Every structure is written in C-alpha cells, then in structure tokens.
Amino acid sequence: MSEVVTYKREGAIGVITIDYPPVNALSHAVRSGLLDALSQGQADEEAKALLLVCEGRTFVAGADIREFGKPMQEPSLPSVVNAYESSDKPIVAAIHGTALGGGLELAMGCHYRVAVPGAKVGLPEVKLGLLPGAGGTQRLPRLTGARKALEMITTGNFISAEEALEAGILDEVRSEDTARAAGVVIAGDVIAQMKPPRRVRDMEEKVRADRGSDVFDEFRATLEKKSPNLFAPFRCVDAVQAATDLPFEEGVKRERELFMECMKSPQRDGLVHAFFAEREASRVPGLPRDTPVRSVDSAGIIGAGTMGGGIAMNFANVGIPVFLLEQKQEALDKGLALIRRNYESTARKGRITSQQVEERMALIRPTLSYDDFSDVDLVIEAVFENMDVKKEIFGELDRVCKAGVILASNTSTLDIDEIASATSRPEDVVGMHFFSPANVMKLLENVRGSKTSSEVQATVMKVAKRIGKVGVMVGNCYGFVGNRMLHRRGAEATALVNEGATPQQVDKVLTDFGFPMGQFAMSDLAGIDVGYRIRQERRKAGEQVAPNWMDKLAEEGRLGQKTQAGVYRYEEGSRKPVPDPAVDALIEQFRMEHGIRPRSISNDEILERCLYVMVNEGAKILDERVASRALDIDVVWIHGYGFPSYRGGPMFWADQVGLETILASIKRFRDTSGGDQWEPSALLEKLVSEKRRFSDLN
Ligand code: 3H9
pTM value? Predict the structure, then answer.
C-alpha cells in the first residue's frame, strides 16, 4: 500500500485518505495509491460507501505539475477518475482548502461532493497553458451547463464553495469542524438512504440543452478580443463544445487530443516556468529560510502622489494602518481623493463592499508631520527621482524614527547605498520598488544595498507576500533589474524611430509579441517627464546621454496621458493612444536637425533589437550578480512590465530562441550600429561556448 494514500474503514464507511504535502498533487505515487485504495474499498465487504478526503492544508490542488514534460507513468489520471466513477460502491468526496484542476476532476468522478465553508474549487489548467485533461471539460458542463463551465475553464478562476453549490458542482456545504467530519455525515446519509452511485458522465440534460448554443462563439469572440495570442483558452472552448455535441466517451477522446496539443505547445512550457519561477523567487539565495524577520504592523508613506497613494492602498487592503505624508494640505487632500476614487471604482465593480471602502480609508491616516512616523515599523519614501531630496528625507527619518524601523525607498533608479548614507543606520535601509499602478501591479522589486541586513531583506520579502505582491530580491545598480533593461529597450525603440520606424510600428511589434502595451504607449502612461527627468539627472552627473526626440516632447509639455498628449494624443476621458501628425512632424524635424535619412525598418529588426538588447543587459545583470538567477529576471519582467507569461520571461524566451542565434545578432548590431548596449555580455559568450542556457543557472 502506498504511504501517500491510505485506506481505513470506520463503521460502514471506507475512508481513503491522501496525504502528500504540500498540496496533495496527483503524482504517480498518489495515482497508484488511489487505485490500490479503491480496490481495497471494493473488496471490503463491511464498507457500504467510500469517502475520499485529504490531510493537510488542502484537498488535491491538481495534477503534479513537476511531472509535466516527463514520460507519463501509468496509471494516468483519466483512468483513475474513471475507476472512481465506475465504482459500484458510492463514493463521497469531502473538500477543504482548494479542489483544483485534476483535484476537482477527481471529485467530479466521485458520486457525491461536500465541502466546508471557505473551500474553493476551480479548473485553473488554462493558466498553465492547458485544459482540464481528466474529463473536466466533459463533466463540469454536465453539472453546471456550458456557460458556467466555459467561464470557469477559460479563466481558470476559483469559485467559493457557496458558488459551487449554487452552480451544481457540490451537493452540500457543511460547517462541521473538518471536511472529513462533513464527509462522514454525507456518506452516512448515502448508506442510510441506500443511494446508488450517481455518475456525472450519465447526466445528459444540461449538455443536451446547450447543444447548438451560441455561447461557444460568444466566448470565442471575447477571447479573440481579450487574449488573441493564447493557445489554450480556444482549445478549452472546443473541448466544452465537444461535451455538448458528442457522447461522453467520444467527448473524452476529443478532450484528450486537445489536451495533448496544449501539452506540446511552447506556451505551456512558458507558463509552467512562470508558475515555478514566481515561487522560487521568494527563496533568496544566501538568505537562509530561518532568517529572523521584524514584525510590520504599521507603515508610513512619504508622498501622496499616484505612486505613494497606490502603495498606501496595499497596506490598508490587508488591514495594516498607514500614515500618508505630504508637505502641503492640498496635495494630501488630492492624494486621498484619488485613493477614495480608486476604492469606489473597485466597489462599483462589486469586488469590495462600500463598508470595506470606509474601513480601508479609515486605515489611511493623512499627516503633514514627520513626528507621526516616530513609532511606525516601516517607512516607504515615494517622492520624485531626485537624490538630494531623497537624502534630505532619509536624514529626517533617521532623526524621528524609532530603532528597528525599516527605511525603504521606492526609487526606480537611484543608488540605495547613497540614500542610506544619509542615515546613521544603513543596515535598515532598503529599496522597495513598486510598479505603477502600485495598487494593481504584482511586482515588488526589493533592492538590497551593500549594508542592508539579512533581517531587513527577509522582512521586506515577507511584507511583499503579505500585501499580495510577488517579491524579487535584486542588487543595487542603476535602474536595478527591471528599469535597467527597460531603459535599454526604450533607448533602442527611440533609436529605431530616429532611423525611420514610426512609434506605432514599434508599439505594434511589441503588442503582437504579447506585451499589453508598446514602449511608447507605456511612456505616455508613466509620463514622458519621468524618463526626461532621469536623463537630465544623468546629464547633470556628467554622463553622455545623447539628445533624442522624446526630450523634445517633454520640453513642449507633451507629458503623456496626463496632458492628453505625449507620443500619442488622447481624446478627453480616453486612454486610447491616437497617432498624432504633430509628433510625426517633430520626429521629422529631429531627423533633419541631425542629418538622418530615414529608412524602412522591418518588424523583425524591431523585435530583435528591442528584445535582444534586453537579453544582453539581462545577461550582464546576472554576471554582476544584481539578479541571483535568470528566473528572477523573468519574474520581474512578467509581473512588472507585462512580458507575456506564456513566453516565460525574457531569459526563458532567450533560451527558447537559442543563445547562439541571439549572440550572433548582437554581434551584427554591434558591428553595424555600435554602442555599449551591443557589447556582448561575457556571460552570454561563455554560455554559448559551453552550449549551456540561462536556465542552467537557475
Ligand atoms: C492539472 O491538474 C492537469 C489535469 O487537468 C489533467 C492531467 C491529465 N503540482 O502556491 P504555493 C507547490 S494541472 C506540484 O506557494 P499557496 C508549489 O510549487 C494543475 N506542486 O501556496 C509550492 O511548492 P514550494 C492544476 C504544486 O498556498 C507549494 O506547492 N492545478 C502544485 O499560495 C505551495 O504552493 C493548478 O494549477 C501542483 N499542482 O497556493 C494549481 N500546486 O513550497 C496550482 C502547488 O516548493 N497551484 N504546488 O515552492 C496553485 O494555484 C497554488 O499553489 C495553490 C496553493 C492555490 C494550490
């Protein structure tokens, strides 16, 4: 008998228990164990009904993702689910935590389902580039009808036990202390009432009603708008449609074919990499897991602009009181009004209640005085990018804050060590770089300075998790990981326009690749003045930063969306970028002033130059140990800059393209256009010569 699945009889109930931490994933050992336990239950004459439960924090969270890409070992999951469904003794599944993917499919193979309040169910395979491949696309519509099944399967979103009850997935939600206890009650009823096995595959009513429905084309049209580049969601629709069009056995065959197509897709590779990379990033090399952390029960934010306000919301959202400081009452009022508008808009969408709006607003305490920061556990400075101003602020914080406070800067480019030098406690100073809009974007780039203590590093990684962010620890250098690479891409995109491309062409190449917006639409969103101010700072510091046509935009007051004009123009109240002939003229003028004769530039050249320049910089970042692993860079780009997760992040994508191909192009660009951005990274050259990949360094 497998150790991870056990069979034990309690009275007339044969209890099958899965115990395979952390999430009871359906590994080979679990699948075999499930079949063995089922056989025992069948053979046990005293057992009148069987009960499937899980130990630990959750019911089964799905197939074992770590087995993907390896040869499949029998028994397969579909055969296990079929065996459970075919059992002539009734089987009850009792759910706590999350029943996800193959876990929910297994539960749907059982004959009765109960959950405790707080449990959730879902078929999230699509988020890994897959579709439910153990009968889920055939059984779920039989329980819920096609529309609900399509909603769940194409989004991968989880639903609550109560919603699952209403949708027909569960038979009951019961408030016993444990799922097992709830299951015992239901199994007892089944025995007492001599209920037979009730097989979902035999439920035809709902799928018959949905045969020929328009709902499938409706979902395809929505996907075409929302995620036209994704492979799996369209296959999900095909599979659910097969449930309505075909008899069960044939529908399952169709599901299998579609599942295998998804399994082979490079998008599945990219998404699975992204899943594990996100989790791996939380384990920082060199920072032992048992590093002590400080408690953070209050925070202070300096700057109530869009950034500071967004950061404050993150803390209020999880119940942490936060002071929000500004120099002038007017700025404070404006900042708070913006926060309220954001919350109210979320409430209008039904995601929070109006009571929650008030509770969260009450946690954000406006102030004009640093004295209010004397007792907080964490301070995050979020003022504009100017070293002198930041140093002055940190000097002030050093004077007013208690010992043990963490002093963080949200700087996106500046030297953390220099900021820390304005205090007497550089070990407590760290970068916490949020991404705009800070209440939405998932990334938190935590930046360690040369003196930041391990305790402070471990604490800010923990804070990231607590406020629902994906934290990545990076080293201190100009622009850290994300912006350092972004600036390279931005400079290259700007140069491509100098040479003859249009901003629209560059942006379209990037959105076709899968970015939610192009380089220039993004500059308009962030504000043209942000990049301009950074370039001016660098020029002031004596660095060679060539003039470009984007400077001219800033000087003309075209600051982006906020002035309804930047690289694009914007209609009143709209965020849709509209090409502007005035900008074409400005670019033309710039070319003339610099003696540039525009040429026609291919989309391939645009893509290669915009992305290979990032890969080269990423390799330098790795070589300098600013990022510990290639996967950290991938996570930064997926969660901070909208790099398509189905491509796995820039370094994973580079591995897929082939490092040799990329290096050859980098050398070609160096030879044709020069510039230190095209100096090949020594690490990249080394990897190519050793026939290794970035992922070998993870
Ligand atoms: C599927 O089922 C296909 C079938 O339809 C068809 C087959 C034929 N496998 O996220 P956490 C690990 S596809 C292996 O930090 P949380 C995870 O890596 C699957 N490992 O915790 C981490 O390990 P570590 C469909 C898994 O509480 C640890 O568990 N299912 C799996 O924030 C804790 O995870 C899914 O897509 C897995 N399936 O969230 C569910 N899941 O500690 C994916 C987790 O070493 N999982 N691990 O870093 C999740 O959404 C979340 O992990 C979950 C817990 C909500 C379960």
Answer: 0.93
